[in-house]
Amino acid sequence: MSLHHDLHNDLSNSTQLMQFFYKLTWAFHDQDKHTLFCSLNDTNVALLLAMRDQNNWEGQHDQVIKQLSLTKEFTGSIRGLLKLQQTGTDEQIIKFIQQHDQFFTQGIELNDLSQLFDISHFFADGYMLHDRFAGYNEENYFITFHVDCLDYVHNAAHFYNEAYDYWKGYKTVKTYEGIPAEEIGMYEMRRIQSRDEIMARNFREAYLNIILFMESFINSVGYDAFLGRNTLDQRDALKLKGIQGQRANGRYNYSTLEQKVQNISWIIYGTELNTDNEPFYSYLQTDVQLRNCYVHSKPGELPAITSIEGWKNKCDEMIARKTETVLHAFWKGCYPDKPFPGNIFNVFHGNSFKGHQGKMVTSRANH
Description:
Number of strands: 5
Largest sheet: 3 strands, antiparallel
């Protein structure tokens, strides 16, 4: 191959490697470091675009060699900030970048990251193979993850805490008559909800998001097992992904939540959980059914009206006892000798919900 072709490939690979490590360590860099990265990256990209057409290339290869040297020196200066032992090759990292454009906006799945670095301590904290690693947080340098099911916990906490503030009288409703005119924008005029309506809607949304969190966690356990097992027949692989079977026309029949609890426990541990027993029965027949009535509402099939206090009591029961009871029973049905994921436990049972703070949290693995 020609020198031009070799330099183009080397610069392309080195640029992608620099982008990978910078993306995951950006919180550690000051403005000068950020400016240097942007300059190197922009220059490299411009050179790569210009070099694509060798016949019209008017640049100097010496410039490319200089950029290569600067790029590799910069990457070498930030590698150690990731604080993970690299087990894969640079070529594997480059291949990952080339195959996953969404890395720069969504991070990297732990399933992929585990092929490149030793992240056993992440799994010890309870993270699953499809959770996403997003590098370090700008403000506190803590490692940040995206965990699908925890989005619903954060939603639930937001709605619950908003309703709780009105319930306790920490917040009050202001009418437009009580707000200075200069603080009301042209398009701000809208219906003001009453205190009762705010509490009812927010307690209800908190409850529904807790139910969604529980289903998402169950889905996560199944999908984690799907990613982590190399020997699965097609039927079991589909069931771990929430697919009960396939019709003759190729379309899927999706599993009910009850079927997911049964299927996942059977495939992972070999014993099917009995959903006719508690704590699953009341959860599936009462909580999930009520959730379905609202999420999949139909004319003429509206659920019975629940009072404000009723919604709050439902939330309090789920937060204090029921969520933990159901999910722990499901987890133990899948992994009887494995501790419940600490990262999930800590968020739900930490200080997320007002009036329920101060519970114990589990210890974390050393990072």
